[in-house]
Amino acid sequence: MQAGARVRHRSKPEWGVGLVLDDAAQGKCRIQFEHRGVVMLSLEVVGNNLEVLSPDEVAAHEAATMQRQPHQKRVKTGASRCAHCRQQLNKSLYSADRAWKSCPLCSKVNGVEHVFYEYPNAFGTSDARISDEAPDGAQSYCITCRPRIRQEPTARSRACSVVISP
Q1: Residue 5's closest CA among 16, 14, 23?
Q2: Does residue 68 or residue 11 have the better pLDDT?
């Protein structure tokens, strides 16, 4: 089970689609479900009840969700802060060596710490994105979070407490 994968719990369909927040470590992983929130699951206990969705299944789910709620606006909430570095979760951070970058959406979904991916592999760059804040044209969100790309994650995630020194 890799971070960024979209899953469904077969025996808990009311939870909706989940986003795997971190790689399975010691047989457990955290998953952010649409209607349940963050859940720590033991892969041994869950067994075959956890189904990894294909990019097409995720796209179909998102399209159906948008059809049910076409006029729903995003409500801007106060930005929560990382438990490790105390910076806003919805802002990208780089490691000191710029080998890792946090994804604001993955971090916000995680809700506890920034979620970092290898940079630039997991993000990509574009000449259209070059600015004073992003001189190399870095994309803001990881490839998994950019809906038009629909790729599998290219790198494993790391928590802020592993990447950023206190």
Answers
A1: 23
A2: 11
